[in-house]
Write a structure and sequence with these properties.
The chain is α/β, with parallel strands linked by helices and 272 residues long. It contains seven helices and eight strands; from the N terminus they run βββαβαβααβαβαβα. It has a single domain, classed as Rossmann fold. The protein has an eight-stranded mixed beta sheet with strand order 1-2-4-3-5-6-7-8, with helices on both faces.
Length: 272
């Protein structure tokens, strides 16, 4: 893993990069899809459990992976719109890295967990609509994502998380950023959604309202709601399990296999 620092105007941010090396005994280089991961952490921190372990799983499927350390609500700063500008800057930066790292720019996937899922959902809703984007990001968006994966994501900050409206205002003083589903348009990309119905932090209705709006717009999606398990499961295996217990459910780890199958359906990963 290598750190990469980028900037949007006067805001600096960091990527963790997990590049796949070329296979030396191939006659020609192979272009790989790429995953950009937004970990959760309540907009207070970036959870390591949803960073490197997820990135390396994507590597194992033949995808480059980046972890985006998007703007947090700290030191008097707000998350929005800076986090969306950082994601757009990251996507545009990929164009300069295409030949160096053999990236298939037509197969970039955004991955979001919990609060990081809100960043991805808002990007899919707001930033892929040219009319909405021009008010936030002055530059041309050179690279667009092909799809999204949302894990137990915050979608609507009026549906049970956060508990305090004051924190929502700290995240985004402009309330138009609070409800990602409200800004979805026909420009949005296919989305895979998973969560547990027993999530005790982010109510499952968050996933449902986003899927409903995607459905209304006839945008392809797949949603899996598991019948047990708490919040923040990450891979839901021993790899991301806290040493003191929790964050592990033998019934929910199947989400990864389902997501990979869906990426094959989207022709982002090969079928064999």
């Amino acid at each position: 893993m290598q750190k990469q620092e980028l900037a949007y105007q006067d805001t600096k941010f960091t990527l963790d990069t997990y590049w796949l090396d070329p296979i030396s005994d191939f006659d020609e280089p192979v272009e790989h899809p790429l995953a950009i991961i937004c970990p959760g952490g309540a907009f207070k921190f970036h959870s390591d459990r949803e960073a490197q372990p997820i990135a390396m799983k994507f590597n194992s499927e033949g995808m480059h992976a980046l972890v985006l350390h998007y703007q947090l609500a700290e030191n008097g700063k707000n998350v929005y719109p800076i986090a969306l500008q950082e994601m757009a800057t990251t996507l545009n930066w990929l164009k300069s890295q295409q030949e160096t790292h053999n990236i298939d720019l037509s197969k970039v996937v955004l991955i979001g967990f919990s609060a990081g899922g809100h960043v991805v959902a808002d990007f899919n809703s707001i930033m892929l609509d040219p009319e909405q984007r021009k008010n936030i990001f002055a530059d041309k968006l050179e690279v667009e994502p092909a799809a999204n994966i949302l894990g137990y994501s915050v979608i609507d900050m009026t549906l049970g998380w956060p508990k305090e409206e004051s924190w929502s205002k700290q995240v985004a003083p402009d309330e138009s950023y609070w409800q990602a589903q409200a800004h979805l348009t026909e420009h949005a990309k296919p989305t895979f959604i998973w969560q547990t119905v027993t999530d005790d932090t982010v109510p499952v209705m968050n996933s449902i309202v986003y899927a409903q709006k995607l459905n209304d717009l006839k945008i392809p999606y797949e949603m899996h709601l598991f019948g047990s398990g708490g919040h923040g499961l990450s891979l839901s295996t021993y790899v991301t399990k806290h040493p003191n217990g929790g964050d592990y459910n033998i019934y929910d780890y199947k989400w990864w296999e389902l997501a990979v199958n869906w990426l094959k359906l989207q022709r982002i990963l090969p079928e064999i």
